[in-house]
Amino acid sequence: MLEFVVRVVGVLVAFLVAPLLVGQAEHKVMAHMQSRLGPMYAGAFHGWAQLVADGVKFVQKESVVPAAADRRVFEWAPIVAILPYLAALAAIPLAPGIVGADLDSGLFFVLAVMSIGVLGSLMAGWGSGNKYSLLGGLRVAAQLMSYELPFVLSAASVAVAAGSLSLSGIATAWNPWWLLWQLPGLVVFFIAGLAELQRPPFDMPVADSEVIFGPYTEYTGLRFAMFLLAEYAGIVVLAGLTTVLFLGGWSGPGPDSIGWIWTILKVALVSVVVIWVRVSFPRMRADQLQKLAWQALVPIALLQLAITGVGVTLFN
Q1: pTM for the full predicted model
Q2: Which of 17, 24, 62, 272 is the most exposed place for a label (fewest CB within 10 A)?
């Protein structure tokens, strides 16, 4: 019982802290990449408390429900958007034995619940009673249909190579030459993950110059803050999953007892790459977004899966 409580508390603390750290890193990393200061005053030293100040600001704002909205759908959308990432984080291992829930089919579970998170954006677009929100929600649906397939196929390639659906088992089976063997799958997985999280350059659903802020246009206060927190939590989950599947998880110099440090460092590195992509690439058009998925990522993912299957058959 005590072990269960410790695991639950650990996952909750990680879920509450890690997305905030990623959010703060985005403030500062983007500022440095764009040669500007970024937040500097909240909390004094380099604006370390900026996200705390933002949280206080959101708490003070009134949460308004539009008269034309479907109230129940509108109010539940932020919760549906954020909770799946909490469940996904519980299944991603930090080190051998350090995981919220070590599931035999952990990869399947995490991919499934990440897909559920997108439903929060769909509910927000449909339930807001706003035409721009509805257009943004439809764009979310289009991206989900396009990028879910290469996302799952590239992850399946790693599962075939490891011979396991357990995330801990995949991390244990990993070896350095996978960095070359599974490199195409890594690229596809990362790009498709960005699209599922609606991160730039795949932020068509929230394009401010076209649909104001897409599904989130009518949201204020804490409900809006929950969508922002869900985005940062999604980055943490994507980075953690990328680390476990393609970068060896806790593998690194030194004993397994410090493996959790390597996992955290790799997750931080992948998160910085997510931020770097936002700064470096302009938003894609809707037709470019669909073309990239169906004409590039899906064929590459299928080819990677086929090569992995042949390799496993011949050399195992």
Answers
A1: 0.94
A2: 62
Identify which has the larger pLDDT, 5 or 134.
134
Q: Can the peptide bond before residue 176 be classed as cis, meaning omega within 30 degrees of 0?
A: no
Q: What are phi and psi of 177, to 5 degrees?
A: -70, -10
What is the average per-residue pLDDT within 73-86? 93
- pLDDT confidence tier of residue 4, bands split at 50, 70 and 90: confident
Beta bridge partners of 98: 95
Q: What are phi and psi of 138, to 5 degrees?
A: -65, -35
276 vs 279: CA distance, rounded Å: 5
**Distances from the Cα of 304 to the Cα of 118, 158, 169, 244, angstroms:** 26, 10, 20, 18
- Using alpha carbons only, what angle is made at residue 261 by residues 6 and 253, rounded to the nearest 5 degrees? 135
